[in-house]
């Protein structure tokens, strides 16, 4: 009976954590001042990720950088970073990146999007994009 209560409590806490924070937007347990909404299109080997970075604060944020982290043996991307000169509150700043799955087996993998202040190591937000398995090229 005690085990069932413990399982129920763990499940309730997990649901609360996921519904309060979502899968993105937390860095080291601190709520982020930014939000990222992303969408993946394509069946591979060429994919396109469209995403928006939104400022949730009341004041503009200046000089932000966007970087990507992924397995270089699985994906190839033209541009590894972008800059955001000014991010106005409550307005999404759109991005579109194109990438190619170069793995011979079309492996599915994760791409991480980091937004941080320039010259700072700790990101303000990190979004993890689960990429689908790629169709294999017909040779």
Question: What attributes does this structure have?
Answer:
four-stranded antiparallel sheet; 10 strands; flat; 139 residues; mainly beta; 1 helix
Explain what the structure shows:
With 139 residues, the chain is mainly beta. Helix content is 14%, strand content 47%. It has one helix spanning 2-21; strands at 26-27, 30-31, 34-41, 46-55, 61-69, 75-77, 81-87, 92-101, 110-117, 125-130. Strands 3-4-8-6 form a 4-stranded antiparallel β-sheet, with no helix packed on it. The protein has a 4-stranded antiparallel β-sheet with strand order 7-5-9-10, with no helix packed on it. The longest helix has 20 residues, at 2-21. The model is unreliable at 21-29 (pLDDT under 50).
* Average pLDDT score: 82
For the secondary structure, the number of strands is 10
What is the overall shape?
Answer: flat
Run of helices and strands: HEEEEEEEEEE
Helix content percent band = 10-25%
- The number of helices is 1
* SS class: mainly beta
Question: In percent, how much strand structure appears in the residues?
Answer: over 45%
Largest sheet: 4 strands, antiparallel
| C-alpha Rg (nearest Å) | 18 Å
Low-confidence runs: 21-29
Q: For the largest beta sheet, what order do the strands appear in spatially?
A: 3-4-8-6
N→C terminal distance: 60 Å
